[in-house]
Each structure stands twice: as structure tokens, then as C-alpha cells.
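Section 3.1: Structural characterization of target chains.
Under the original work plan, the team committed to producing a structural model for every single-chain target entering the pipeline before any wet-lab resources were allocated. The record below documents one such target. The sequence was received from the expression subgroup and is listed exactly as submitted; it comprises 644 residues.
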Amino acid sequence: MTVAVKKNNFKHDCSSTRRKKKVKNGTKHWICKKVKDFLIEDATLGARELQKKIKEHHKVHIHYKRVYYGQKLALQQLYGDWDSNFNNLFRFKAQVENSCPGSLVIIDHYTINEKIRFRRFFFALKPCIDGFLNGCRPYLVVDSTFLTGRFKGQLASANAVDGHNWLYPVCVGVFDLETNENWIWFMSKLREAIGSPRGLAISTDVGQAVMVGVAEVFPQAEHRECMFHLVSNFKKYRGKVFDDHLWAAAYSWNTYLFEKHWTEMEKAKPAATNYLRKCHKKLWTRSQFRTICKVDYVTNNLAESFNNWIKDLKAINLDDFMDKLRQLLMVKWNQRRKIGKKLDGLILPHIIKMLNEKSRELILEVSESSEDVAEVTAFGGSGFRIYYLTNEPIEKHVDLYYSIEKFRAAYSALILALPDKSQWPKSKHEFFMHPPLLKAVAGRPKTERHKGYSDNKRKKGQHQCPICKDYGHHWHNCKKGSKEDIEAMKAVRGPPKKRKNTIVSDQSSIMALEDEAPTASMSFPPSQNLEATTTKKRKHADLCSEASKSSQSMEISSNKKGKLGNSNSAGSKRSRSGSNQPEGLSIDEPEGVKKGKGKRKKVISKKTPKKKLVLDSPAMGTRSKMVQPASPAMSTRSKRRLSL
């Protein structure tokens, strides 16, 4: 029996009743209307994320390409057209100069095929410039990152550090490529903004263009090099000796420790130290830093922090990016100004707390000079010697860069709020600045940087304990597991390894004077790899001595026999090269060596006592005959003379 239902007379409220009779496809205009709210919250959302959100909220699957065009239309309506955003920089400049006089907004352009196009941009707010000069230490980290929008240019930045060791952005710049010309232009505008403060130190990576820019514009500044980039370029030289001594040499406070670690690396691999002498001549060790700027950083982590701070803004148009960056600075300045108003005293509490924590780990030796003055030497760690006045508090011995007054001066100036860009004043320039010419790039657009070889070794997530299966601790510190399980794990894996402290010294550090001129480049210890060269010279000298002995004996025998005119005599035979020395083929082989086809083969013979060469020997011609005085930096080397 078959039943067919042709009509349902009962009322129902399923979703199909709310649909219209004619269903239309989702167009880019419909998608633009639906995704505007998502893009207002986060302008970096891609077409794939918007496609998922449309599927989640509207239960409709739209093709990726149509979502992309709808996203593009929405961004154009929200943030303006691509062709006009570079020309809007002139309006942004006029608004900033009206609201914040003294700020530097410099736009550079050039003409290509009778069209004026964007070239470079520099932006520095007046409160940032004054705060750096009045409240921050004279230290700058200069680096660049790539933009991820339609314009794949470089965003350069100069960042400082305040008394609280917080990031302090000073200025930014935009150009197409990292060339010598662009970096010299950026550094010249930076000098125009801040001048040349006393004791200025600039830290960069090992990029050739940025190093040329610093050397050209700031020749008197102390030029430091990022240790992380040095290690990344040092990847062809690997081994435990470099893991133990390369970073330790960078963190060494005095010359003694630096030379100690340097000697260990040079003994293990002379080619590695020669590479450092040749390719990394800028300052990268604390033992050679000046103390005026009061910053001992050996990496460019400040620049990486700034890049991470603005990474979500790198895809939007340039005029909106600069306005968003100004807004971030305005909020950050306001927060830290409020913090400065709540502080009381002379030195920042964070610095006092850090000094108290470090003082608990010190082993001190006190040598009194009088009732009020004593000489205090610290053992362990870096080692240092200070003069301490017993009647004065520790705050008076801290530099004023860490004072509350300096911290307030860094954020005292206000960064005023600006109206929406639709209300910016009209610029007086009488031309339209077109966007820069874009270069075709193979593959999909890159939104993340290329990771180095050391980044791949970093594990994502937390460590999982194999006993309790929880995260955040190791098995030997597990509190939830039983003792039997921990003992069983210890029997399988062995006891946990303890980290070794590689930097231990009881020497006093000798720091540079504050009025001393900056070091132009790294000063490396003299080369100590004499063993490899002396062994080669020794072999050559042995062969030459045997050759001279054989030639002398042949001359004596020829004189006795009276056959000086014989052409077969080795003493009268002329060399093919034109010299008066005997040919190598006529030299008698020394004992213990047999002739063979191609290479010479050594024959095992009885050991004979080695002859020690005198200082006047020809084999010692490459070494200095002056006896070097004993140095405390050479105490790690063996005191036994080289056996020649």
C-alpha cells in the first residue's frame, strides 16, 4: 500500500518559509555590506577568515574569489582608495603640523614618466623627540621590517629605552628597498630630529646598507652590532665550544673574561675567529661598550618588540597606518604619564627592587679606607669594584637616567588627539602624488618574515609531564606523581642535568672612561694560532735542512774527485726555474721516507730525539723574537712552550 502526501494543511515555521520565491546569489556588494563590521574590528582579516564567518553567521558558502572582491570593496569604503592614500599624506602632514608644532613629517617624491610618485616618508612627533632628549638614555636601536599591504616597502624605525627599561619609539620611516641611499636619507632625517647627543650609541643588525647609513651620518656615535644576527650568520661554525664561549664572550664585562673565552674559541677553530675579525668589526661585547648611555644590551630586541607591536597594522594603507601609529603612541604616553604621577621618591621603584634582588646574590669583600669610605669587591658573576659611602643611601649612587624626574620628563609632553581623516585640512601642494610603481613578485604575498635556522628549534606550546600528563613542569619536579613513578623515570632517563654557569670570575672590571672617544671597531686579541703555522714551517724547514746537507756533501765529494765540470753534479746543475738552488728531484730523501708513485709514504722507524731549534733558526723567522710579558688575560693558556 502506497501513501502520497500532496499537501500539508498545517501551519509550520521552518526556515524555508522566510525565504523569498526568488533566491539571488551573494554578490560582492552584499558581501561588502556583511563583512564591514568584521573589518572595522580587525582590518587584517583575510578572505579565508571572512568566508568562514559568513558561513557561520549566514549559513551560506560563498566562493573564495567573490569573498576577496567583497573584502577589497569594503576596505576601499572604510579606509579609502589605493590611488589616493599616498596623496592624503600631505593632508596628514598639515594636520600634524597644526596640532603638534615642531613635529617632522617629510615626504619625498620623484617623477617617472611625467607622473609624480611616492618615494620616501619620515615621521617623528615633537613629544617623542623632546622626551628622548630630556628623559631617555642616549641609545637607539635602528632596524626595519616589511609592509604586508599592497605596497611591499620597508618600515624603518628608531627605538630608545626609558628609565623603566620600557620601549620608547622615536621615529619611523618608509621606503621601497634597503639601499645605501635610502638608509643615509633616513639617518640624516633622524639626525635633523635629535641632533647628536653626547654618548650616543646606535645598535643595528649586520645589514650592509644600514651600517653604511650609520657610519655616514653618525661617525662619532658608538656603533654596536646585534649579537643574535651575528650568531645567525655564524651557523657554519658549530660545536660545544661556541655554545659555551661565544655568547659568554658577548656578555663579558671586562677584557680578561672576553680574552679568556676568545682564546678557547681560537684554540678550537682558528678559522671561526678569523671570520669574526674580518666580517664583524662593530662592537658586540660588553667589555668594549662605553658607560655613558647606561645600556648594556647586546641584541636588537627593542626593534623586534616594536615590530610585534605594530604587526597588525602593516597591511592597511599608509595614511591610515600613520594615523593608527600616532593613536597608539598617544594612548601609551597617557598611560605612562599616569604611572609617573603616582611615583614618589628619587629613583624608580623597579630599579631599587632590581638592585636589592641582585645584591642578595653577591659575595662581597670590604676593605675600609676610612670611617666613611670603603672599597667593596664583589666575587662571582661579572666581578666589579665600587667605592661606597656608608652615610649615604644607595639611591644617590644610581644614575639620574633611572630617576622618577627623568621618567616624567620623557612623557610630560601631550600627544593631542586628531579628527577623522575626512576632516583633515586640505594641503597646499599643487600636484597629485601617485602611488609608487609596484614590482611583480612570484608566489603568494608574504605576511610573515622568513625564519632563521635557530627559529626552527623553538618548540611550540608547553612541556608535558610524562607522569601526570599536565603542562608547565618537568617529571623530576612533578608534585602529583608518586615517588615510585619518579624513581622509575629516573632509572630510565637518568638524573636531571644541571645547568653550568660559564661566567665566573673574581677579577675587577675596568670600565671605559665616560669622556673617552668611541671605539671605531672591535679590538680583538692577537692571534694565538701559532701551532698550525709552526708545524707547517717545521716540515718545510726539515726538508730544507736535509736538502742543504745533501747538496753540501755532494759538493765536497765533487771537489775531492775533481769533477767540477761534470753536468751530472748536483752542485753545478742549474734549476729549471732559473735559481741557483738545486732541483727538488736531485735532493736525497731523508731517512724514513720511501719513494712511491704520486705521494710519499712514511716508513715506521725507531724514534729519535727531536732536535730543538734555536731562536735564530730559519724556521723561527715568522715569529717575533721578543719575549712577551706575562698577562693575566693569558692565564687560561698552557705555560708550556711549544715544542718545535
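Residues 530-561 form the longest helix (32 residues).
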